[in-house]
């Protein structure tokens, strides 16, 4: 058995340095309780840009620009080792960390943002970085499109781990790309919550025959700092739960093991047995004995897509 920790604490909204310090502290809290895997929600660093859903297109464009600039200046630049504090925390505590974060493309354009998810192994190495393939609806005002280079299931100290972000988990072919890599722990950082999302998590656990961890940021309006531009307009109800969280862990082939943790902040812990993933697929193996490659096939382009080639 192995213990996982699912973070359901808010970041310090749109403050990267303070949020990074909080993330390191949360890892330090989870590790002594036996956690070997620590999972953070979608764009936990520096906080999900929920303002794009709350400002009217056109009329709110100038306001969106101001909030975008703040969000951009607090994004993680991997070309400058922006995840180094989490890598050091993973190495110090001997835990695998899966973290959703907003990434700035410092190596190419210097400005475009991506909704990314990194898997950091227990030795501190970043073993995979996945950029969300298709931002949803107004998210496209904030994030660029990812590519297939991060559609990997990777071997870690806790087993074979893969990730898809939020509504990517509604993309059947993206899910299948992970199933076809002998996935054991399927992590779904998200901003979604509620019964419909939980039903999706259960479906994936059954369809993929894998452990499924779903996690969104539990966030109240009171958690938004006073100095955030247009705060009172965006969050007029001081008692609002902006996101109720719903951290959850499902066992292979379905069944809740822990959670959902709703309208509550803290860390959700669960004990899982990696061996159950492969064993559960005896009944249904989507990419194995239940596949029909003579009828269906999937081609995944894993090439990194770059806007310029220099020779």
Task: Give your account of this protein's structure.
The protein is globular, with a radius of gyration of 19 Å. Strands 5-4-3-2-1-14 form a six-stranded mixed β-sheet. Strands 6-7-8-9-12-13 form a six-stranded mixed β-sheet, covered by helices on one side. A two-stranded antiparallel sheet has the order 10-11. Strand 6 and strand 7 form a beta hairpin. It has 311 residues and is of the alpha/beta class. The N and C termini lie far apart (51 Å). The mean pLDDT is 96. It is built from seven helices and 14 strands. It has one domain (2-280): Carbon-nitrogen hydrolase (Nitrilase/N-carbamoyl-D-aminoacid amidohydrolase, 4-Layer Sandwich).
Feature tags:
single chain, 311 residues, alpha/beta, Nitrilase/N-carbamoyl-D-aminoacid amidohydrolase, 7 helices
Give the count of structural domains: 1
Please state the second-level CATH architecture. 4-Layer Sandwich
What is the number of strand segments? 14
Structural class: alpha/beta
CATH top-level class: Alpha Beta
Runs with pLDDT <50, length 5+? Answer: none
**For this structure, what is the CATH homologous superfamily?**
Carbon-nitrogen hydrolase
Summarize the topology:
Layout: E1 2-8, H1 16-30, E2 35-39, H2 61-73, H3 84-93, E3 96-104, E4 113-120, E5 126-131, E6 154-156, E7 159-163, H4 172-179, E8 185-189, H5 195-208, E9 211-215, E10 219-220, H6 231-234, E11 241-243, E12 245-250, E13 256-262, E14 266-272, H7 275-280
Parallel strand pairs: 1-2, 2-3, 7-8, 8-9
Antiparallel strand pairs: 1-14, 3-4, 4-5, 6-7, 9-12, 10-11, 12-13
Helix pairs in contact: 1-3
